[in-house]
Amino acid sequence: MGETCEEQPPTGLLTGPTAGPSTGPSTGPPTGPSAGASAGPLTWGQQDIWRAVVAAAPQERYLTIVRSFAAPRRRPVTVERAALALERLVARHESLRTRLTGPRDAPLQQVSAVVRPLYEVVTEPVEEVCERLAAEPFAYWDEWPLRVAFVVDGGYVRHIVLILCHLAADGHAAELLVKDFRLLLLRDTLPPPDGATPRELAAWQHSDAGRRVSEEAIAWWLEEYARMDPVPPYAHTPEEPRFLEATLRSPGLAAATRAVAARNRVSSSTVLLAAAMRLAGGLTGQRHCGMRVIVNNRFAAGRRDAVATISQEALVVLDLDAPSFDALVRQAWGRAMRAYRQAQYDPYAMEAAVTGAGPGIRSFGCFNDQRLAQEDGAAGASTEPAARRNGAPGEKIEMAAARTDGTGEGKTEVAWTDAMDRNICDFRLHVGGEPGGMEVSCYADTALLPPSGIERYLLDLEGLILEAARA
Description:
This is Condensation domain-containing protein. By secondary structure, the protein is α+β, with helices and mostly antiparallel strands. The protein folds into 2 domains: 38-202, Chloramphenicol acetyltransferase-like domain (Chloramphenicol Acetyltransferase), CATH 3.30.559; 217-470, Nonribosomal peptide synthetase, condensation domain (Chloramphenicol Acetyltransferase), CATH 3.30.559.
């Protein structure tokens, strides 16, 4: 990984249990450097992801996006029909025909005009297929950014699994791909896409207009950095592996979050962010605390339907000395709305700017509500967890803690779900789950939070919101 390669077919088909004599077309892309390929800069969002890849390699598979969905029932789907829909999907979206080229420290994206996508035909359970296909990171210079499996039963495709490289799509783009794939299975054709392509977005970002937007965002971030109190040095001896993730599954948290949100006329995501930042301030002793929040950056015309990686981080800074949790929630809503407008920037220029903000002046981790992308996506689409296990795929997850949530709706559970030696982020909070059962994952550097602290943070987050809902 990391070496420049000429345009050539992938080395072979993906392997796995099959339900027929072939796992898919063996045809690769046209060969030769002049076979309809062109190279250009990465989008700012892609640059952010590449920085995360480099920081975590070779354990960057946590960045892989996994989606699965049921094939339409009203029109039975043969393998041939699914393969044709896949070809049309790849032809429709430039990002699926893109690989990296150039040096590892300054890669470019190279787009091919024609690609015959590979796929598997399998009979495995869907969850096992997701785990297996997402188990290894993508080969960014040699592999297309999409792995596909058709899960068959009774001669027809019942489920489709999509494994996406995060350089090709962010969460919102992944949902758009699921939507388009489902429609192509039903209708065969779709109107031309409206969204800007990755190359068009990158070209604008590197223009004078794009640089002005980046400079404005950097200036705003520096003003916010000036409001923050210092974060104290790490207080714990790091463990091995150094980075651990625990996931809380709570049957009552979703309803409690909605109740607090309705009372304050804000989103449920804002309630979770306010709670996350209040607890962060309790750990650091800060009154003015900053946390980065993932923003999909699709507010402008022509970007809502962009299948590309354009999500970036906004910076939300709160004064935690609020008279009540409800007051903090309302403050978080206003601060977040302003921050979302300043989430488009050159990440390398931003890093250089904020590094000089002063000793200990930095944001505390990252907040990512993944439900936002999923709720905007295709109806009926499901989200499978990425392959984020410490050990072999399918390994039993160790239970860390369990308790009743106090709502009478069931038991809250905390499980250890990932472990890594390297990462770009020392604290990360992900929100997801299915309707009626929220999942919140806390991923932390053990020098910042020991395992017991990670558990306690998640349980305190749940307790804070449940108590606020009863108030």
